[in-house]
Design brief:
elongated, 11% strand, two-stranded antiparallel sheet, 386 residues, 9 helices, Helix Hairpins, 7 strands, 61% helix, 3 domains, Heat Shock Protein 90, alpha+beta
Amino acid sequence: MTDLLIIIGLTLASCIAVGLIGLALLHVLRYRSLRQQLTIATLLPVVAVATTVLINVQLMFLSPHDSLVILIALLTALLLAAVGAWLVVRRIASASRQVGAGLHQLVSDTASSAPVTATAVSAVAAPRELAEVLEDLAETRRTLADARARQRAAEQSRQELVSFMSHDLRTPLAGLRALSEGLEDGVITDVPRALSHLRATVARMNVLVDDLFALSRVQGTRQAKPQTMVSLTELISDAASESTASAATQGVRLQVDLPTDDRLAVLGSSDDLARALTNLTTNAIRHTDPGLVVRLEGRRANDGHISVAVIDSCGGIPEANLPRVFDAGWRGTPSRSGDDGGAGLGLAIARGVVESHEGEISVRNVAGGCRFEVSLPASGPVGRST
């Protein structure tokens, strides 16, 4: 019993001594390389066991043969521990350098205004926890790259809008100035006609201002409008009725295809949705040649969404221009010059309205023209309410 107590005491004493030495080394190296600290922490328990075994072997007075066998086993264990520690520490140190490089790259991307390339950081042979950190860093860089791309696109869109609006406002302002000076100098003799022209020019400028206000309201931070149950069937019919006169003036035929037993109910702002549908219809009529057809359709899709389509006969849009159709102020052809009183904001307003209603709007070329399609989440049952 006494021998057992002595062995236990020596074992505890040797383990505590080795542990204290290891803790002291870790404290001294606390600001040094992670590789050194991990190596010490990994080898510490093995060294403690080896020290304890050696002390006890000496006390047991074993034969030289038995002592040699135990010594070889201890050296082999130490070697295996050292190799294992080196492999683990090497992987952790390599992954740590990758994390540091990723953080440095992320900070550089954040501080720089240059475009961000969303290159993924390699996480080969990294421990799972550090691999997840590397994946998060790569995802953050991709998100930053996307945000920068959207920011540049928005800035370009704003610059183009300012340029377009400056052009669209300069022309009517120059006309107003010429008319006012002519009336003031008495050069213009047909005063009623001049006043009529003044009124038409002011009305055109008012349209531009209204479009700008509507665009800022649907795209910017704004107070939410009260939302009610809205029948898209009725809004499509109203948009077609309001556009009948302008379609007839341009020799364009309107066709409406709507379900007879479904109100196509959605939750939203009736005024905003009506404006979006009117803008799409007006745009289709404006770019359809006389004698051709503009078609309005409303359907309940299989996924439960409400689909509204406006199909014109404009001959199609170049594929390269399709992604920019809904940009504010963009005009793809010389014919879209704003002489009709618009400023290239109608489709941008329509997109803002649709997106504010958690919907999607798209355009694609079809035979003879373009198909503008709006998808909105349905909020009502099939059929007419009583």
